[in-house]
Specification:
By secondary structure, this protein is mainly α. The protein has a domain at 90-298: Transferase(Phosphotransferase), domain 1, CATH 1.10.510. 42% of the residues lie in helices and 8% in strands. The protein contains twelve helices and five strands. Strands 1-3-2 form a three-stranded antiparallel β-sheet, covered by helices on one side. Strands 4-5 form a two-stranded antiparallel ribbon. Strand 2 (41-46) and strand 3 form a beta hairpin. Helix 7 (175-191) runs antiparallel to helix 10 (236-249) and helix 10 packs parallel to helix 12 (285-298). 39% of the residues are buried. GO terms for molecular function: ATP binding; protein kinase activity.
Amino acid sequence: MDSGEAVVVKRMSDLKPLSSVEFTRQLHIIAHQKHPNLLPLLAYYYSKEEKLLVYKYAENGNLFNRIHVYIVLSDIMRSNNTGSRGRDRIPFRWNARLSVARGIARALEHLHFNVKSQSSVPHGNLKSTNVLLDSNEMVLISDYGLSSLIAQPIAAQRLIAYKSPEFQSSKKVSKKSDVWSYGCLLLELLTGKLSVYSAPPGMNGVDLCSWVSRAVREEWTAEIFDIEIAVQRSACSGMLKLLQIAIRCCSKSPDNRPEMTEVVREVENTRVVESEEEDLSVDPSLTDESISTGASLNEQ
């Protein structure tokens, strides 16, 4: 901008047939959401030909790149649809990941209990590419509330909430669909694996809910965690606690998923480690401690 401030302009398409008044009403609901972990909507533009949203620019990119840092090489991509973590990757240790999990949970809790709207999905599209990091590594959630603008056939194809188990069977989404999305995001954060729900076009992901369920059931829990945090022995109990929260959030039954207020409380109580430079080796107790995790899973 002329002022020197950088912003992001999002061009909207495939919207519901909304009038200018209806579009403005929905945008005001989104713009009035004030929370430290929500990306601020600064302005919008509406015309028959063009709908634009203007957001604050987050300097440190998105969580997808922070986890994976994929180097997309055209010849490799054509052959096996994979990438690799870059050599210049900034370490993404346990404390930073836990901080991200907390920021996302706080933002979702705010949306679930502070949105003055009839919309049943306060976010609707929570995924790692929609979790941004500013210059201070503060978590900023983007794309919240846009499900109220998108035409449902398009939403069913593109938005994460519409890929939840309940939408597949009953074609319904709710706040609990957001909770499911949060659980999927936690699993991506813990495993470092590419989720099928957030994989960019042309790249293959894993159904992390099913993969983690199998890992816990067959008691190879130690192999679940991204090696970058699995080697932090003092973070072992915290990783298992966050895994248990993720498993509950990913329950196939919406009624068995916790409310975001409960999730926030549990994630806030998950401890950081005092030093992240200590004994970097995989803790063998991960497999033993997984028994309690497996019990939680079997109850879902």
